[in-house]
Design brief:
Layout: H1 2-16, H2 19-34, E1 39-43, E2 46-50, E3 54-60, E4 65-69, E5 92-96, H3 104-118
Antiparallel strand pairs: 1-2, 2-3, 3-4, 4-5
Helix pairs in contact: 1-2, 2-3
């Protein structure tokens, strides 16, 4: 299933064939770099990246590529990447328009945070000092 989803995502990128395809391909690469264990899925006719639950979806529109984080409202967005769906209680999205480029390290930090949140919101255990 995961392989066919990855194939469908690659097909979508190829079908777009313009700046949207390049943008979606770049964001996909950053997601995989941020969390090599991410699972690619195909739901609602859009790419979905998951790790213990949905991290984000990658929708493409005429004037934007939209990355919607399922639990974005719970993430600390220090770089203020979220610029869409800001009124909701749960989701947040990043709309990327032609010519715009998202800060790679800030985006990867959001992906890692989302994965941590899906695992129960607990960061890796740290040793207690006595």
């Amino acid at each position: 299933m995961a392989e066919s989803a990855s194939k469908l995502i690659s097909q979508r990128i190829a079908e777009l064939g313009d700046w949207r395809g390049k943008t979606l391909a770049r964001m996909r690469k950053l997601i995989k770099e941020a969390d090599p264990d991410v699972v690619e899925e195909w739901k609602w006719d859009v790419p979905v990246w998951s790790r213990d639950g949905i991290l984000c979806t990658g929708e493409s529109y005429k004037k934007a590529v939209k990355l919607t984080f399922a639990k974005g409202a719970s993430l600390k967005d220090r770089a203020r990447l979220f610029n869409s769906s800001l009124d909701g209680n749960v989701r947040r999205a990043i709309d990327i328009h032609e010519g715009e480029e998202v800060d790679a390290s800030a985006f990867k930090a959001l992906i890692r945070q989302a994965a941590t949140l899906n695992r129960g919101g607990k960061p890796k255990a740290q040793k207690k000092s006595k």
